[in-house]
Amino acid sequence: MPEKPDKRKLEEKYIQLQLLDAQMQEVERELDALDLQTAEMRGLVLAIYDLGNVKLQSDALSPLGGGFYVKSRVLDSKNLLVNVGANVMVQKTAAEAEQILNKKITQLEGVAAKLTQNLQSLVAQASQVQQQLQSLILSK
Asked: What is the pTM of this model?
């Protein structure tokens, strides 16, 4: 007659597997957020490029946030105001602003690569724990 597996060991492995699953879900959420930020920055790079083709004194809609806009006019399409922190604005050329955004995109991609490696490691650990759990269940 087969022996029952050690119930305590089974519970420990199951809890360990649940913790790894929770960590994987958190890393996936972080990766999704990074993907969203990266996509927004890429869209901003395109918007800056398109702004260079806008004629001066053209009508525009300027976002206030939360889906609210105000009618405005384009007075300068070559220079932008960039928030550098603490609501301090610095004038940058469109090319400088694109460089700033591309640098941030590169940084975000680096963080995403590290998170992806972390996720792969967690998946490998979870697979190992799952195999250990199965062998405990099937052991005599």
From this structure: 0.80
